[in-house]
Structure formats: C-alpha cells, structure tokens
C-alpha cells in the first residue's frame, strides 16, 4: 500500500511568527510605510505614549521591504522548527519576546535618532541558539565559537566600517540573547 504524502503544520510558533511578519510587511507596503512606522518600528518617543511600550515588542514584525522580510523569513523557517521541537513552543515564544524587548530597549537607549524594525535580532538569536544543540555541561561547543566568530564578528566589523540602514547592534544583541538562553536552557537539561 502506498503511503500518501501530506503537508503538516509542523511548527506553529515559527509559522505563526513568519505569517505575522508577512502581514505586517504587507500592511506597511499597502500604506506606504505609515503602519510600519506607527506599529512595527521602535524609536524614541514620549514615555507617556502607550505605543512606545507596545512597539518594543511589535517592531520584530515589520520589515523595511520584501527582501528584508524574505531574508529573515528564510532563516526563521530553516532554524525555527528545529528549535521549536527541541525547546517547545512556550519557550520559543519567550525567547522571541525577550529578544524583541531587549533589542527594542537597547536600540532606543543607544540610538535615539533612528528606528528599528524587523526580525533580524530574532534570527541571530536563533542562529546562536541552534549552535547549542550538542551542548554538554563544562564544554563550549566549537559550533558556538564559530557562529560567534563568523556571524557576530561580521556584525561588529560591518557596524564599525559600513554605513547603511542595517542594525548590526540589533543582530549582536539578538545573538547575545540566543547565547544566554542557549546556555541556560541546555544547562538545565543535564
């Protein structure tokens, strides 16, 4: 008997997150960037404005354009299902929210004259977190060292030498969140 193939909804958190990013990017595109700036970017604004605090979390959904979205969605869809299977949906949601909050707060403090949007911080958290898959207490995985040197090192170099609209600091902060959560999550599992 031939087994039928079917498409499964294998990673609800990651698929839901990518879908929300798609919708936010589409809304930004359809409104000429108005909704992106209003809802899906974090920047210094009045502490009396409730949107200031909401945007600390929602900036990860908006993207500056379709290529920005596609780049992030590709990494999220490659790494996310493995991480969701290993850590579970609840922890993955917590990592995404923590990354959004930390990158949002630090960007607002350090770069008061610019805005931040996109899931790049979450992508870098996922990249570094994925390097902890073979972690054992008392050991530092070589994959982790190489990821830090290659991905985070590149962000440091580009942050110092290239002037563009890419938030290298958001990438570095996301990677740091991935490193800390990866270390502590895997340490507890031993």
Give a nutshell description of this structure.
The protein is mostly helical. The chain has helices at residues 12-30, 34-39, 50-58, 66-87, 89-110, 120-130, 142-161, 168-188. The chain has one domain (12-188): Rhomboid-like (Rhomboid-like fold).
How would you explain this protein's 3D organization?
By secondary structure, the protein is mostly helical. The chain has helices at residues 12-30, 34-39, 50-58, 66-87, 89-110, 120-130, 142-161, 168-188. It has 8 helices and no strands. 38% of the residues are buried. The protein has a single domain, classed as Rhomboid-like (Rhomboid-like fold), CATH 1.20.1540.10. It is 68% helix and 0% strand.
Describe the protein's topology.
Elements: H1 12-30, H2 34-39, H3 50-58, H4 66-87, H5 89-110, H6 120-130, H7 142-161, H8 168-188
Helix pairs in contact: 1-4, 3-5, 4-5, 4-6, 5-8, 6-7, 6-8, 7-8
Mean pLDDT: 87
Number of helices: 8
Please name the fourth-level CATH homologous superfamily. Answer: Rhomboid-like
Spatial gap, N to C terminus: 43 Å
Q: What is the CATH-assigned architecture? A: Up-down Bundle
N-to-C SSE string, H for helix and E for strand: HHHHHHHH
Q: How many E strands?
A: 0
Structural class: mainly alpha
Number of domains: 1
* Shape verdict: globular
| Low-confidence regions | none
> What is CATH's topology name?
Rhomboid-like fold
Query: For the CA atoms, what is the radius of gyration?
Result: 17 Å
Tell me the fraction of residues in β-strands, as a range: under 5%
Q: Report helical residue fraction.
A: 55-70%
What is the CATH first-level class name?
Mainly Alpha
Largest sheet: none
């Amino acid at each position: 008997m031939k087994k039928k193939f079917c498409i499964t909804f294998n990673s609800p958190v990651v698929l839901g997150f990518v879908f929300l990013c798609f919708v936010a990017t589409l809304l930004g595109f359809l409104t000429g960037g108005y909704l992106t700036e209003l809802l899906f970017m974090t920047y210094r604004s009045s502490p009396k404005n409730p949107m200031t605090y909401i945007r600390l979390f929602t900036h990860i959904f908006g993207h500056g354009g379709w290529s920005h979205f596609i780049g992030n969605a590709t990494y999220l869809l490659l790494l996310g299902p493995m991480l969701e299977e290993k850590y579970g949906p609840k922890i993955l949601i917590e990592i995404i929210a923590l990354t959004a909050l930390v990158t949002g707060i630090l960007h607002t403090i350090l770069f008061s004259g610019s805005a931040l949007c996109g899931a790049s911080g979450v992508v870098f958290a996922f990249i570094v977190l994925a390097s902890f898959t073979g972690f054992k207490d008392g050991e530092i995985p070589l994959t982790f060292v190489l990821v830090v040197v290659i991905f985070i090192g590149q962000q440091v170099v580009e942050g110092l030498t290239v002037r563009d609209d890419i938030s290298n600091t958001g990438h570095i902060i996301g990677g740091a969140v991935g490193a800390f959560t990866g270390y502590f999550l895997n340490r507890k599992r031993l």
